[in-house]
Amino acid sequence: MRNQTRDALLLAIGGFALLSTGDSLVKTMAGQWPGPAIASLRYVVGTLGLGSLLLWREGQAGFRFDRLGWHAVRGFGVAFSATTFFTAVQIMPFAAATAISFTSPMITALLAALLLGEPLRRETWIASIAAFAGVIVVLRPNFAAIGPAAVLPMFAALGMALLMIGNRAVQGRGSALAMQVNVAIFATLFLLLFTVVGHFSGVAMLHVGVPSWSVVGRSAMIAVTGSGAHALIYMATSRAGAGTIAPMTYFQLIMAGFYGWLLFHEHPDLTALGGAAIIIAAGLYLWRAGRVIDEPQGTD
């Protein structure tokens, strides 16, 4: 393996491990502060930090919003995903919530066909049907235990799919840092709105009280780990390409299972593990099918 590719894979693994670290911090705050409020504080801190860096590097020009509507879609996708996923990990097993959220590539492919007019290939249908079968398997015990709230990771996957679609629509409209800051600004606005709505909804677990210093500190740590993770993943893709490092995203699921076992004493049964395996296999199949089509074809 070439050194550059090896380094890219290691960077990607580090980035996805950091994402699971941040998610595990969210779970430690279950019952202490609602998921939307944690996400809001995380993005306020992250936006201020990254925005200051962008202002220093690119000045006011870095904050331009070409194709404003698509930037809003990106921000809504991030906010919706963070709100639903942060709430999900507080009420259901960590690894199960993470596994279900990995249906995002299949949802992205379906939305790309619907919203961007991209061709809907046979491989997309096969992967999507398999992935959602895996979701049903994983949901079985969780739906029985916590009810409809068990589908929250599916909404998180939908939010990430909207982000991916928006990213395609604004590709090349600014630097990687500018794109990250712009989406964070919109995400923060939507998250603050979701937090206020949740607070006045009458749902006890969404009531926003005064947080302890521990909650504030952990939320800030989530902002740092999240921003660091995205930076590592960006460096990985710049060295080896998105297609090469894409399978490394499933390391996040391994870390989720490890944190669930180590910190929260969660022990998924064989059925849940089987469902997660089906989702991973579907994602890898879709990735492989895309790689075959994207690779230049030789001539005889």
Features:
single chain; 300 residues; mainly alpha; 12 helices; 77% helix; disordered C terminus
Condensed summary:
The protein has 300 residues and is mainly alpha-helical.
**Average pLDDT across residues?**
89
Task: Report the strand count.
Answer: 0
Q: Radius of gyration, rounded?
A: 19 Å
Structural class: mainly alpha
Put simply, the count of helices is: 12
The major pleated sheet works out as: none
Please trace the helix and strand order, writing H or E for each element: HHHHHHHHHHHH
Strand fraction: under 5%
Please mark out the parts with pLDDT under 50 across 5 or more consecutive residues, or reply none.
292-300
Amino- and carboxy-terminal Cα gap: 28 Å
Question: How does the SSE layout of this entry go?
Answer:
Elements: H1 3-28, H2 35-58, H3 68-91, H4 94-101, H5 104-115, H6 122-146, H7 152-169, H8 176-199, H9 213-240, H10 242-245, H11 251-264, H12 270-294
